[in-house]
Every structure is written in C-alpha cells, then in structure tokens.
Design goal:
The chain has 708 residues and is an alpha/beta fold. It has 27 helices and twelve strands. The strands form three sheets. Strands 6, 7, 8, 9, 10, 11 and 12 form a seven-stranded mixed beta sheet that branches. Strands 2-3-4 form a three-stranded antiparallel beta sheet. A two-stranded antiparallel ribbon has the order 1-5. Helix 8 packs parallel to helix 20 and helix 19 packs antiparallel against helix 20. InterPro entries: S04_transporter_CS, SLC26A/SulP_dom, SLC26A/SulP_fam, STAS_dom, STAS_dom_sf. It catalyses: oxalate(out) + 2 chloride(in) = oxalate(in) + 2 chloride(out); oxalate(in) + sulfate(out) = oxalate(out) + sulfate(in); bromide(in) + chloride(out) = bromide(out) + chloride(in); nitrate(in) + chloride(out) = nitrate(out) + chloride(in).
C-alpha cells in the first residue's frame, strides 16, 4: 500500500508594515496645517460655511415651495414655544424669541444638515432655568415671578455688591442689575461657556464623548427630565405662586409644596388650563390619526395662544381674577453686550452637561435625518455649528440651544429640502419681534405651561415601553430606569452623571462576568461550537476547548481563571498540592514498611511525584471572542502555561486576532525569537486539536520506547 502523505495546514504569513514614527506624523500634520494657498483658503472657508457650497446650486423651482411651507409652519410653531420655554429658562419671553431668531440664522450659514431645526429645546431650557434660578437665589432675589420686591438676602460668597433697598438689585460689571437683567446675564454667560466647551470639543475632535451617552440612557434621561418639566410647570396650571425649589429632590419637594398650597388654586387659571390642554391634546390626536390626509400640520398652539390672549385681554383676567400673565414684551432688538465674565467661573461646571447634551442631540439628529433622506453630514462641522449657535447669540441676550426633534420632524414632514426653511422661520420670528410682540401682554402663563406640557407627550409615553425594553434587553431596561429615576428624584444634572456612570458600570460588569463555554465538534465538519447551545456536538477526546467572550485585562483576569478552572474541572495549583500530599504519604508508608521489615539501612527512600490520570491532556483557548488583552492578560496566559505544564497539561491558543498576537510577541510569550510560536499558536481550533493529538501520541510513543 502506498503511504499517505499528510499535508500540513497552511501557514499565514503576516505582512510587514512600515509604520511611521509619531514625530514624522506630527511633522506631516504640522506642515499640512501651516501651508497656505488660495485653494486651501477657499476650501477652509467653504467648509466652515457650507452654505457657500450648496446655495449656488439651489434648485429654485424644485425646492422653494417645500422650504417656504416648512419654514412658515415651523416659524408659526416656534413663536408660542419660544415664549413658553422662557418659563422653563427663568427669563422674560422676549429672550426666547431672540434665541430662536439668531440660532436659525447661524445654523443656516454653518450647518450641514438639510432638515435639522436648531433653536430652543425644552430640556435645554429646563437645565438653563435650574442654573439661573440657583444663581438668582444665591444673589438674594425672590424667585416668585409675581413678587414686586424681594426680601433682602445677603450672600457674602458671591463677590457681587448687593444694593440694599427695594427693588433688589446686584452690581454686575459696575452696573446695577435688577431681576430681569441678572437672569438673562446668567443665561448669556452660561450659554457662552457652553459654546466655548463645544468649540473646544470640535477643535480637539472630542466628539467621541457622545459614545458614552447610550440610547437607553438618553431616553431615560429625557423621560425623567420631561417629568421634571411637567412638575415645574404644574404650579402655573393651578395658578399657585410657589418659588422653584433649589437643590436636589425638585420633583418631590415641588409636589409637596403644590399639595400644601392646593387651597390657593386660582380657578381662572385652572379652568383655562383644562380648556387649553383639552384642545391641544385633541388637536395633536387628530393630526396623528389623519397625518396622511393632512398636507400641513394644524397650528394648534398658535390658535390657542391667539384665542387665549384675546380672552384674557377682553375679559381682564389679570385684574379681575389675579391670573398671572406674560407682561410687556418689547419690540425690536436690545444692543449686543459682552457676556459677564465675572459670572463664568461659577458657571464653568454647570455648562459641561449642557454642552455635552446639546451637541449630542444635534449630531445624532443630523445623522439620523441625513440617513433617512439619503445624504451625509459632517459631525465635526455640526459641532462647530452648534458651538457658534451658542457663542454668537450669547452676545445678543440669548440662552442655550440645540437641535429639537419635534420641530425637525415637522420640517421633514412638510417638504423641507434645505436650510432655506430655517431662514424663513427666522423671518417669521423677526416679524413677531418687530411688530406683534406687545400683543402677547395679556397671554396667561398657564397657557404657556399647557403648551409645554402637551409637547412632552412623546417623551412621557415612553413609560409604556418599559416592559418591552426589559424583555428585549434587561440591562438596557435597567439603565433606562436608573437614568429616569435619578433624573426625576435627584436632579437633571445628577441624573445625567448617574446614567453615564451606571451605563459604564454595566459594560464593565459584562466584561467581568462574560459568557464562557466549552466547545465541541460538529460531525463531519471542522466546526467547533458551544456544547450547551447546540445539539449533536462531541468534545474531542481528552482535549478541552474553552472560549471566553470578553477582552482579557486586569479587571477580569480573576473571573477568567475561575471560569476556566470550573469549566475544565482542574485547578493546577490544587492538583499539584494534592499530588505532593500523596507523594509525602507514599514516602511515609514506604518508610514504615521498611522499618517493619527490619531494614536497618539509612538508605533514602526515593519516590517520584505521584501521577494522577486526568480526563484531558490539552486545553485549547479559543481566543476568537477576545478583542484585546493587556499585560495582565498576557501574564495570565503565561501563568496558565506554566501551572498546567507542571501537571503535564499543555495549553494552546487558537483564533487570536493580530493585536493579541502582536502583544504576545512583544512580551516574548512564545520565547526568544518566537521559537515556540508554531507549537503554541494556531489559526483555527481544529489545527490546535490536531496538534494536541499528534503531540500526545508522540509523547506516549517516546514513553513506551523508554520503558522498553
């Protein structure tokens, strides 16, 4: 018979890469950065202002109708929301209109998304309002909106001179500043800081920070913030005059104060709120049910604002029933002013969560709608755009902005094609600023609160999705609940921190307690899979194949070892200890037997280490699910090879990716000049199993020959 030639498995040869040194890379980037030419200047300017690229290519006949319609509709929605969200931000209504106007203009010039609507956003307004109210409280102002004068509260830690008298004022940058002046000064300084942080994030390419804001965490955070917004606005629905709580537990304390003062409910505000909410909810439900038939959204908010303003004005609700109204809203623009730098050190920490949330919502929305409509956006340019939407307007008495989902969806559904629609929306706001703002004097605050609360329907409806979230992914559902409860019960800022930290803890926990499995071979094919998950798999005889589905690093190396010892059923140190005890016991028994036989010689009894037959002679570590290891992980591999080697069990590696192989080579895991690499590392589990069988057979053959 002819001898069958055994074909060795193919050997993969690594490509040699010429890696550039760090110094050469830095020199190249520096040279490219400082080089100046006309094409580069043109490219930089058009990249910084994308409008220069797309505006000359604007298809007037094809785009103008959709842009005009969506711009007008969003502008009509924007006006009542701009006035309403000022209640959340703690500033007079005129500043909401300023914010909406400037943000739309700047994003029109700098944004790369065709559909995103940038402006006031309920979550941003709430977070700004919390900072504003905190600083107003520390400055000694009465937070009750309807108070004519506050009681004097001195706070020596402010570094500002308090003017004793009525009305209360604070000296800011050498100028006496009353309640309205101080509130917008805080909001503008905070907005400037937010924009600076976002600009730094864009310059240093720190957009990766947003990856730590997982979708379940953001959803839970937004839902918790929505419930906080509802709580803060509830007092306006009832016409109860209580100041906004400062510090943690706003929701709990506010509801306690509401129920404690429920007997002071203003019936006029209560009835107005009930009517407005009924109409708004009915309008929203009709729009959702018949959205396919309606060409444009029904401007329910504007109708409510117009009708309520007329009713309040001609019914004289403020004088007769004490209903709280918006008050005088001036026309025109206030001269620009540099944000107060004396306030910024106190606002530096408060601006960080605002900056992160603002850019995260803007970038995610721009990418989502770009994907939906078949074009691309530049995330770093979006970060630049939203940073300047905060920096520049801060000089014009505006507060923090971001992309808003509801208005973006309206733009998309009403035929928006480009950011010309944002320019149209800004013109609608401009008309109100120049001509119609004073007509909102008699508009009741409870009507604005109704608009805010009804706009939260989408976020609050996510409560009913919790069971589905928990069924789909228990970890994601728990993250959602933790972020939501932390935001609701502690504070918005702490809710964000708790949500991010808890999300990261969940990821770390998963890596410390990953799924592990022993593998078996499918019949007739060289495929190895989990014996607990698949049927008809047979483990190779006397070979254990272990898979660890996580990176191997300092935090989970103990978990890796415990899992391996439990899976294979043999812990090398304990096995070695047991063998040594048996060896010692054998020596003692032999000595006693010699003495009993009367052997008087002092000859030393020599007994080798007691060998105990194990169920396996080789462990194959399937590293296909290990994306990376660190030096601790490499040391763990080395320890396994050494410890199992002492009990004559061989340890082999299979399916390692190139990054793991490189680190093992650098740490000389395979010996000097990688001499043991071919006998320790294999590209497939099957190759490792074949090598284990051949090696064991050769060892057995040598043992028999030596015995003969």
């Amino acid at each position: 018979m002819e001898e069958v030639t055994k074909v060795p498995p193919p050997v993969l040869e690594r490509q040699v890469r010429q890696r550039q040194t760090t110094v050469s890379v830095l020199k190249s980037k520096l040279k490219h950065g400082v080089t100046c030419s006309v094409p580069k200047v043109r490219s930089t300017l058009t990249g910084f202002f994308p409008v220069v690229r797309w505006l000359p290519k604007y298809k007037l006949k094809e785009y103008v109708l959709g842009d005009l319609m969506s711009g007008v509709i969003v502008g009509i929605i924007l006006v009542p929301q701009a006035i309403a969200y000022c209640l959340l931000a703690g500033v007079p209504p005129i500043y909401g209109l300023y914010t909406s106007f400037y943000a739309n203009i700047i994003y029109f010039l700098m944004g790369t998304s065709r559909h995103v609507s940038v402006g006031i956003f309920s979550l941003m307004s709430l977070m700004v309002g919390q900072v504003v109210n905190k600083e107003m409280f520390l400055a000694g102002f009465d937070l009750n909106e309807d108070s004519k004068a506050s009681g004097l509260v001195l706070n020596a830690s402010l570094g500002s001179n308090l003017t004793i008298g009525s009305p209360h004022s604070v000296e800011l940058m050498g100028v006496p500043c009353g309640k309205e002046c101080y509130s917008i000064s805080i909001a503008a300084a905070l907005t400037f800081m937010v924009g600076v942080y976002q600009l730094l994030m864009a310059v240093f390419r720190l957009g990766f920070v947003s990856v730590y804001l997982s979708s379940p965490m953001l959803d839970g955070f937004a839902t918790g913030a929505s419930f906080t917004i509802l709580t803060v606005q509830a007092k306006y629905l009832l016409g109860i005059k209580i100041p906004r709580h400062q510090g943690y537990g706003t929701v709990v304390v506010t509801w306690f104060n509401i129920f404690a003062n429920i007997h002071n409910t203003n019936l006029c505000d209560l009835i107005t709120s009930a009517i407005c909410i009924s109409i708004l909810v009915a309008g929203k439900e009709i729009q959702e049910r018949y959205k396919d038939r309606l060409k444009i959204p029904f401007p329910t908010e504007l109708i409510i604002v117009a009708g309520a303003t007329l009713a309040s004005h001609f019914g004289d609700l403020n004088s007769k029933y004490g209903s709280s109204v918006s008050g005088h809203i001036p026309t025109g623009f206030i001269p620009p002013e540099v944000p107060s730098f004396t306030l910024m050190p106190r606002l530096a920490l408060d601006a960080i969560p605002l900056a992160v949330i603002s850019f995260a919502f803007t970038v995610s929305l721009s990418e989502m709608f770009a994907k939906k409509n078949g074009y691309t956006v530049r995330p770093n340019q979006e970060m630049l755009a939203i940073s300047f939407c905060n920096i520049i307007p801060s000089f014009f008495h505006c507060f923090t902005t971001s992309a808003a989902l509801a208005k973006t969806m309206v733009k998309d559904s009403t035929g928006c094609q480009t950011q010309i629609s944002s320019l149209i929306s800004a013109l609608v706001v401009l008309l109100v600023l120049l001509f119609f703002a004073p007509y909102f004097y008699a508009l009741q605050k409870c009507v604005l609160a109704c608009i805010i609360i009804v706009s939260l329907r989408g976020a609050l409806r996510k409560f009913k999705d919790v069971p589905a979230k928990l069924r789909a992914s228990r970890d994601d559902g728990i993250v959602w609940l933790v972020a939501m409860f932390a935001t609701t019960l502690i504070s918005v800022e702490m809710g964000l921190v708790v949500g991010v930290v808890f999300s990261m803890i969940c990821v770390i926990y998963k890596t410390q307690n990953p799924k592990v499995s022993l593998l078996g071979k499918a019949s007739d094919v060289d495929l190895y899979e989990d014996v607990e998950e698949y049927k008809n798999l047979m483990p190779p005889p006397r070979v254990q194949i272990f898979r660890f589905q996580a990176p191997l690093y300092y935090a989970n190396k103990d978990s890796f070892l415990r899992s391996l010892y439990k899976a294979v059923g043999v812990e090398p140190f304990l096995e070695l200890t047991k063998r040594r005890k048996e060896e010692k016991k054998a020596k003692e028994m032999s000595s006693k037997q010699i003495k009993a036989n009367g052997d008087k010689s002092n000859g030393e009894v020599v007994i080798g280490l007691v060998e105990r037959e194990l169920d396996f002679h080789t462990i194959v570590l399937d590293c296909s699910a290990i994306p990376f290891i660190d030096s601790t992980g490499m040391a763990t591999f080395e320890g396994l090879v050494k410890e199992y080697g002492e009990i004559r069990v061989n340890v082999l590696l299979a399916n390692c990716n190139t990054s793991v192989i490189d680190l093992l080579q650098k740490g000389q895991f395979f010996g000097k000049n990688d001499k043991d690499m071919s006998s320790r590392l294999f590209h497939t589990v099957h190759a490792a199993v074949l090598h284990a069988k051949d090696s064991y057979a050769a060892a057995e053959s040598r043992s028999e020959d030596s015995g003969v």
